[in-house]
Amino acid sequence: MLAxxxxxxxxxxxxxxxxxxxxxLEVEEFENGLDLLSRLEVAEPDLVVLDFExxxxxxxxxxxxxxxxxxxxxxxxxxxxxxxxxxDVRQLLxxxxxxxxxxxxxxxxxxxxxxHAVRGATRWRERMTSGSIxxxxxxxxxxxxxxxxxxxxxASYDVIEASSGMQGVAAxxxxxxxxxxxxxxxxxxxxxxxxxxxxxxxxxxxxQATPPEVFLLAFSxxxxxxxxxxxxGVLTKSFVxxxxxxxxxxxxxxxxxxTERLQQLLEGDLQPELQSATQxxxxxxxxxxxxxxxxxxADALVLPLRAALQIEDRSGAIVEISILSDADSIRxxxxxxxxxxxxxxxxxxxxxxEIVSTVAGRVRASLLARNVDLQMGLPQRFTDEPALSPADxxxxxxxxxxxxxxxxxxxRVMSATPSP
Length: 420
Known about the structure:
Layout: E1 2-6, H1 10-22, E2 26-30, H2 33-40, E3 47-51, H3 59-67, E4 77-81, H4 86-94, E5 99-102, H5 107-129, E6 135-139, H6 143-153, E7 158-162, H7 165-174, E8 181-185, H8 193-206, E9 213-218, H9 225-228, E10 233-236, H10 241-251, H11 258-267, H12 270-286, E11 290-292, H13 295-299, E12 305-312, E13 318-325, H14 327-338, H15 349-369, E14 375-376, E15 380-383, E16 395-401, E17 406-414
Parallel strand pairs: 1-2, 1-3, 3-4, 4-5, 6-7, 6-8, 8-9, 9-10
Antiparallel strand pairs: 11-16, 12-13, 12-14, 12-15, 13-17, 16-17
């Protein structure tokens, strides 16, 4: 792990450097914020320590510059200063500093706080290198609980905080993709927990997004059964870390099975990539423009020829990708690949295989980028009599070539290989 320090006083830099090196970090030193920012552009630091008063670019301006970068907006930053003005401290906290150390620095007090910052840096780096971490929105008017929950859950989720129901809905709308898990506290003013869960579902439907799993943060385990049914589960608020994490794993993470996780990805931000991969593959084979058909037209298609390919993870969760078409469309595509108006019967057999293998490869690459590793199988071809309905697949898109050929890409998630 790498830490960058900016402080114009050599003695302070040396002291902080030694403490961080004791905690196992590599350290680079700078005399001002501008030099640190220059290094930040090319290095991959895990932690930054800034002094307040520095020449050229002071600590506050350096902090603002770092927070303006999407890549570094959540990177842990420790501030060091002799200033103890309450307004300055509030401004620093608003910009998201991990800790604030007062000069003169006392080693016995600074080491435990720097150790805590290093742990936060480790969690941040894990979030940065893993694309599979979901967003977690916590809506609670109690700042003490928010301060308790963020470091506790930050290692597993990208935590977003809101202190009211209105702020929570706004945060959900602004986030892309929206958070998949929401914890909403009991007893919110104005837009209370019951209204929040209904509003989030409406917002998700409006944006054609997967509705979030909403869990109630209850004052105690005594609540009405009717109220509990509005939520995916109920967590009793606790400030005991082990107890809170145990309840979180038991109540929230039980819903995130590998199969459901893959389904959420396919119905969420992976769906546009699947559509784009299919459209590009068909367009490249046909050497012409390919248009996506409206959903109603896609559902009415009768396409008896199908090639299916499965990609499977170690848990047994399977993504099945199918390309459906008809004989005339396949012959037309095969002919274009051969430079002829239409291919003779029998020459078109590999067209569906090639399309489904290419699309499945693109899907697997997208899942790998989200830290989901699946193994690809080989394509299988079927003639479905009667033809399967497009409605049999939860995620599908249909395309038509400029010359009239029609194909449909369809995906589904399962926990065992089905019979064709």
